[in-house]
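Structure in, sequence out. Go:
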């Protein structure tokens, strides 16, 4: 089976701050670093490091950053046939991280905005029954709808991580097999200050399963049958940027390998805990060997997203 990640890729520039600036204020950063990123690329790398086959569909520019993206994906063993090369600069994100490890992100999304899958991507020919299609919020809602409709016609499972939230996702919720949201995203989409009540609203709107990530508190799985809470190990957070992508990618990779959500989610939480204990985004992700070390000896077979 294959995890098809349809999303974005970009260059992340990370600034380390003691605190976030107030409006109109200029402050001096403690340091900065650059790394490849983008939610699509991040989740594709995380999924690939679980040992499953991954293909990334994303738009990049015909520039040095785009070349670096293609080289990095190939080094990770990720199929690059789905990359669309556009005559514009590769997208970029500015990430601010404060002394407590919290982050704020600003992105330029020219490539992602011009990307209109599944048209012209080869996704139509690549999707097979039993595959997983994973998408995020970087692309327009029409692209998510069209890709998920295609996945349904092929018998492939669909996972949606609607971050960043730019539009209403009501039209695609009935096409989503698994929705992965953080606390704020759940509350915003479900219209409730309590993330678990908000998730229940999303279930009533057509999603059969919702995973709500809760940072240091772990994550919850909600279905029509009830709710299961999974704690996170206690770690000293250095940098939380990319933690949600890491969790989502590992979760998708393990599901594609046949694990149930209840078995895969604790591993994804532990992987995210490793990531937040290190600086950086993609550079903080646990290696294939580190993920192998936290896998159950014999993952339970499931079919939660099929």
């Amino acid at each position: 089976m294959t995890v098809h990640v349809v999303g974005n890729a970009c260059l992340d520039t990370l600034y380390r701050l003691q605190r976030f600036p107030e409006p109109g204020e200029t402050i001096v950063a403690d340091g900065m670093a650059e790394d490849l990123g983008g939610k699509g690329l991040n989740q594709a790398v995380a999924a690939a490091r679980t040992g499953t086959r991954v293909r990334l569909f994303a738009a990049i520019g015909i520039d040095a950053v785009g070349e670096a993206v293609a080289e990095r994906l190939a080094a990770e063993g990720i199929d690059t046939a789905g990359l669309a090369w556009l005559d514009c600069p590769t997208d970029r994100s500015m990430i601010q991280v404060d002394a407590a490890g919290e982050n704020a992100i600003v992105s330029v999304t020219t490539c992602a905005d011009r990307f209109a899958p599944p048209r012209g991507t080869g996704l139509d020919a690549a999707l097979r029954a039993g595959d997983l299609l994973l998408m995020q919020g970087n692309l327009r809602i029409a692209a998510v709808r069209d890709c998920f409709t295609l996945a349904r016609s092929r018998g492939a499972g669909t996972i949606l991580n609607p971050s960043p939230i730019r539009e209403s996702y009501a039209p695609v919720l009935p096409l989503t097999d698994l929705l992965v949201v953080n606390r704020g995203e759940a509350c915003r989409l479900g219209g409730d200050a309590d993330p678990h009540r908000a998730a229940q609203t999303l279930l009533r709107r057509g999603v059969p399963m919702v995973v709500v990530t809760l940072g240091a508190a772990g994550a919850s799985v909600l279905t029509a049958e009830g709710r299961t809470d999974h704690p996170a190990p206690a770690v000293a957070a250095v940098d939380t940027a990319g933690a949600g992508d890491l969790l989502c990618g590992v979760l998708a990779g393990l599901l594609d390998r046949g694990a149930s959500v209840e078995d895969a989610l604790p591993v994804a939480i532990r992987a995210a805990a490793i990531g937040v204990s290190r600086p950086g985004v993609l550079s903080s992700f646990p290696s294939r060997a580190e993920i192998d070390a936290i896998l159950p000896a014999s993952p339970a077979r499931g079919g939660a997203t099929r």
